[in-house]
TrEMBL record:
Keywords from the UniProt entry: Signal
Signal peptide (residue range): 1-15
Protein name: Uncharacterized protein
InterPro entries: Aminopeptidase_N-like_N_sf
SUPFAM superfamilies linked to this entry: Leukotriene A4 hydrolase N-terminal domain (SSF63737)
Origin superkingdom: Eukaryota
Amino acid sequence: MIPWLLLYLFGAVHSDLHKLLSTLPQYSDSRIPPILRPLSYDLQLQLPLSEVSDPDIPLFTGRCVMQFEINQQIGPESAFISDSTSNRARIKFDIIMLDHFENVSLVYNGNELEIFNVQLTDDSMELSVDQPVLFPGRYTMTIHRYKGLIGSALYYRDAGEHAVFGSHLFPNRAPAVFPTYLGTTEKVTFSITMVHPIGTNALTSGASEAYPRKIDDNWQVRD
Ligand SMILES: *[C@@H]1O[C@H](CO)[C@@H](O)[C@H](O)[C@H]1NC(C)=O
């Protein structure tokens, strides 16, 4: 018999995002305003089609469309444009163990920019473009596919007959789910789509202030 899987993800994502957005950014120098401001995220997250009895499947898949604004020209890094390697403008985002980035694109004013490289470390994603500057304005970055560690973003819990994946999104864990930029305090809109196995439920609290609903002796949900 296929066990019933309960996905309790977005309620917690939402409430934690509020926390995230109200958290003070940790700039090393508070006098410097961020040059990049996220405007919106369109996220699609897919949990693996794994058996509930196998919580060890470690990866989720994501797709991220992020709109942001650059309010100050980025680059050139040096006055010597002739040195082509050091004259690719870069932007660095925070991630936590996100990997396998596929088909990353950056669009500015309707034009797709040539991406030179996407360099990943455990905690950063650095995008460099094949041009020395990024001009102020609005950009759309799309990561068509990436993977993240369930264990770093979500938790799994056996709740009696049900299995539960919940968000693990304390504000500082958000980069384990999607790339962020300096934990900004600005208002960012989120649109989140969940892809999950048939026979499972995805629950969200949304923005509503609904009361929690009891689903069994051990669990309640908030719609
Ligand atoms: C990435 O781009 C290649 C080539 O255009 C395409 O075949 C592939 O499906 C794309 N992958 C994703 C995840 O969009």
